[in-house]
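Sequence only, no structure available. Ideas?
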Amino acid sequence: MNESPSPSSPAAPRPIAAAAPAVTHYENFPVASWLCPPALRAPIAAIYHFARTADDIADEGDANAAQRIAQLQAYREELAHIAQGHAPAPQWQGVFAPLQAAIAQWQLPVQLLDDLLDAFMQDIGKTENTHTYANRAELLDYCRRSANPVGRLLLHLYGVQDATSLAQSDAICSALQLINFWQDLSVDIPRGRYYLTDADRAQHGVSLVAMQQRQDSLALRQLVMQQASWARELMNSGAPLVHRIPGRAGWELRLVVQGGLRILDKVEALQGRSLWERRTIGKADVPRMLWRSLWM
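Reply:
I predicted one. C-alpha cells follow.
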C-alpha cells in the first residue's frame, strides 16, 4: 500500500510514440469503491488509470517487444515531464492531467509511479528473452517495483508513514503479486512468463523444460503448493496493517487481504494443478470473505 524525488526530464514537450489505450477493466485492485474515503477517490482513480494504461501498453494489442518498450519509455518520460509542472501532451491528457493534479495536491512520491513502469519494462524484457528469476530475492525485487508502490501510494494518501506500516504494506502487496502469479500459471507459462524461480525448481528437481511443457509430476505439484504456502505466510505477516488504517479504508483493506487469501484457498484446493487450471473469485465467495474480514 511507497517516496523519492521525481525523475529528471527535458523542459520542452516531446513526441509520444502512441496514444494511451482505452482503459475499461479494473480488476487488479479496488478503485474509488464505496468503502474508499470520498476525498481520496479522485487521486486513487488517477493512480489506477496511470498504472492500468501502462499495463495495457505492456500487455495488450499487437505491438512487438521493442515497440512496447519504446512506448513505455515515452510514457515514462511523460511522467517525469508532468511531475515538473509541464502540461501533459494531448495524447495522454486523460491519464496525466488527473495524475498531475493528484501529484500537486497530495505530493505523491513520483519515484513510486516510475517504479511501476520500470517493472513493466523488465517484464517485457524477460518475456522476450525467455529469462527466468534466479531466486526469491530477485522475484521479490520485481514485486518491490510492480506491486509495492501501489500500497505505499495509498498509505501516503491515508497519512500513514511509519516503518511498521510500510513493511506490512509491502508484505501484503508482494503477497498479492505472488498470488496472482500462482493463480495464473496456466496463462503465464504459455506466454513465456516464468515466475517459478530457478532455485525453487532446483530444490524440487523440476527442469525448465518440464515447467515450460507443464509435464505433470508430483514434484511440480509440490513446487506450486510450496509457492502458495510462501504467499500465504507473506500475506499473514502483513495482515495486521488492517488495524493501523483508519475508518472505511481499513475495512476495504480487510477485503483485499481476504480476497487474496481466498484465491490461495482455491489454488491450494487444486493441489498443484494451477499449471492446467485457473480459479477465480465469484459471488459465492463474498459471504466467506466478509465473515473472515469481520473476524480479523
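The radius of gyration is 19 Å.
Hope that gets you unstuck.
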